[in-house]
Amino acid sequence: MKRLSLVCLVIALYALHQDVWLWRAARPFVFGFLPVGLFYHVCYTLAVALVMWLLVRLAWPAHLEETSPDEGEGSAS
Amino acid sequence: LIPSLFVFAYLAVVLYIGIFAFRRSTHRNEAEDFFLAGRSLGVFVFLLSLFGTNMTAFAILGSSGHAFANGIVTYGLMASSSALVVPLSLFLIGTRMWALGKRHGFMTPVQMFRDRWECGHIGTVIFAVQAALLVPYIIIGVMGGGATLRAISGGRIPYWLGGALVALVVMSYVFFGGMRGTAWVNAFQTILFLCFGAVALGVIGAGMGGFAKAVEELSASPATASLLTRERVSPLYFFSYTFIPLSSINFPHIIIFCLTARRMQHFRKTVVLYPVCMLAIWLPAVSLGVVANRAVEVPAIQAKLEARRTLSTPSAALTPEQRSELRAKAAGDDVLVRLLEHYAPLWLAGLLGAGIMAAVMASDSQILALSTMFTEDVFAFYEGKARFGEAAQVHTGRAFVVALTVIAYFIALRSPQSIFDLAVQYAFSGYAALMPLLVGALFWRRSTKWGALACALWAAAAVIAVAVFQAAVPAPAPGAEVGWGTLFGQHVVSRTPGGTAVLGFLPVVPMTLVSALLMVVVSLLTRGPSEAAVGRYFTRRAAVEASHQ
After folding, report:
1. Lowest CB count within 10 Å: B317, B502, B509, B542, which one?
2. Residue B534 CB contacts under 8 Å (≥ 6 apart), including other chains
3. Rounded CA gap, A2 and B173, in Å?
4. From the CA of A6, how many Å to the nearest CA of chain B?
């Protein structure tokens, strides 16, 4: 269920990228200089960061790490 | 002269970083150390360097040039779509490649494909397609270095010398530092151009009397009001662009870079912070490109605006040659440099010029990736490693770096940039069309080597077909379109001022969908790899879960 919810969330985010309802709108200018279409995509980018945070919190493929050989070797670069 | 001094100081610093990385390396003759930094990169170097590797010259110079001509749509087309697709592909594919690299010792994607599908020469075909799509990038990098150094020095440093200097510096730190040097330089460059965006925005905005004033003026003029909306592109074109970032994880330098992290945990911060970094770089670059349309007091920008006006005058009878000459004059790739020259004090212009150089010099990781692929997928695979040993493999990699840089430099001196601009434009589509290779190998048990071969050949053939089509049919005037056939109210194929469209979509959409279809159909029609090979990739999770019960 959790996995399905996350998949739906990502699909919804992909769909929200196509904001055709703001296609011809320039105003209002948010903060006096950001056209509303650009402001939408700035907010969209921040929303993506939030969804990515959710993905790594809730759906991290930990099984891939567990099957790897010892990771403690090698110096930090 | 002052800006040039800053740029030279910058070049000296990145050269030093490369040599420092060489001295820091304790296993200089080991392939994994040279090509993958011993799979030991820490979390912040990994994040900054991966991001820097993905940000080519286009991120700063090309994006502001695109925004100069097309307006705010540039951000939605290229930045916010990448902000979703790139971290998602790192999360789904990058982590899996990292784990497979650790487990089986892979250093290139072709090594994984060969193992997964039990194939040899088909892997070589995939290598050839990937390499052919990557080479134009390296040439463009050398050209960008020469052109930028010439622009920053006010013409005192000629193109040939600027290109040679940049190529020499890049070659040196890749040669000595390998992946470690390249990663450190990329991390340093990313910090530089993250700072660059904010400072340039502030300085130029203040010089122009504030962004609010510039935006109001753009909105008031009928010629520029549409730059503040997305009217200049169609929704189908906009949608098509969400396919372009699929190319990112398929670029050899990106997927190889995924193998350098010390721990898989390092992907976590990268996945979350990638969209924020995109915002920090692209918002200033796009905003500056748009408001440059009001910088009429800058003579070079005024000349561009005049060329654009002539191009869009319906009554102007222009030959194709005049049209392409005007198009070159109107191109906005240097608007940022022009804005800085005019509005920033000399010392700051120099500092910001170094930031621009950082973006232009992104070809380092591509040179190293090609060298890694050549030594691993060709030299080692065809028994060079077994016959001559690992040290010879590393020496071959270094020799390849030198040979590739020298060849790229001489091609850059003799060929017009427009050819390579076009090649790079369609390299993105080509790499996006290779996506079913990684998805098939990692997520679909039934995928076969023949399906993979069909994908690779299709991607190569489609890129060539689009390039030939665009060379044969000249670009029409802005706003016009030459089309053939009609389906669903759209031309089946059309030549647009900016390129090619298929049913209104960019070629990347049919290229990727047909590639996926070929992978499915050809795989289902052919015999898959052995159970043992499939088992290495698909039974681990079950085994791990069982062991925990």
Report:
1. B317
2. B445, B528
3. 46
4. 12
Contact B138, B363 (CB under 8 A): yes
Cβ pair B14, B169 in contact under 8 A: yes
- Among B75, B210, B541, beta carbon nearest to A41: B75
Q: ipTM score of the complex?
A: 0.89
- C-beta of residue B12 within 8 angstroms of C-beta of residue B357: no
Report CA torsion sign: B113, B117, B119, B121: negative
Query: Distance from A22 to chain B by nearest Cα, in Å?
Result: 8
Q: What is the pLDDT along chain A (77 residues), one digit of tens a residue?
A: 788 999 999 999 999 999 999 999 999 999 999 999 999 999 999 999 999 999 999 999 998 886 544 443 333 33
Helix spans in B55-120 (H): 57, 63-70, 73-74, 81-89, 95-104, 109-117
Strands (DSSP E) contained in B489-532 are: 490-496, 499-502
Residue holding tokens 């390249």? B182
Query: Which contiguous run of DSSP H or E holds residue A35?
Result: strand A34-35
Cα–Cα distance list, B162 to B18, B168, B279 (Å): 20, 10, 31
Name B381's Cβ contacts closer than 8 Å, sequence gap at least 6.
B114, B120, B123, B124
In chain A, residues with a C-beta closer than 8 Å to the C-beta of B212 are: 29, 32-33
- Per the CB < 8 A criterion, the answer to whether B270 and B83 are in contact is no
User: Going by C-beta distance under 8 Å and a sequence separation of 6 or more, which residues neighbour residue B75?
Assistant: A38, A41, A42, B67, B282, B283, B286
Decide: residue B547, CB within 10 A, 0-12 exposed, 13-18 middle, 19+ buried: exposed
> What pLDDT, on the 0 to 100 scale, is given for residue B28?
63
pLDDT tens-digit map of B22-46: 877 776 667 888 888 888 899 999 9
Tokens found for residue B405: 């840089």
Burial class (CB in 10 A: 0-12, 13-18, 19+), A13: middle
By the CB < 8 Å criterion, does B272 face chain A?
yes
For residue B266, the distance in angstroms to the closest alpha carbon of chain A comes to 11
Cis link prior to A28 (omega < 30° from 0)? yes
Q: Tell me the Ramachandran region of residue B499: left when phi exceeds 0, alpha when psi lies from -120 to 50, beta otherwise.
A: left
**Count helices and strands in chain A by DSSP H and E runs:** 3, 2
Dihedral, B314, B320, B322, B326 alpha carbons, nearest 10: 70
pLDDT of res. B405: 86
Of all residues in chain A, the one with the smallest CA distance to B537 is A64
**B123, B108 in Cβ contact below 8 A?**
no
- Best A45, A67, A75 member to test B by mutation, with max B CBs in 10 Å, is A45
CA atoms of B288 and B335, how far apart (whole Å): 9
**Mean pLDDT rounded to a whole number for chain B:** 86
Query: Predicted confidence band at B219 (pLDDT cuts at 50, 70, 90)?
Result: very high
Q: Which of A11, A41, A55, A66 is best to mutate for the B interface (most B CBs within 10 A)?
A: A41
Within 8 A of A72 by CB-CB distance, chain B residues are none
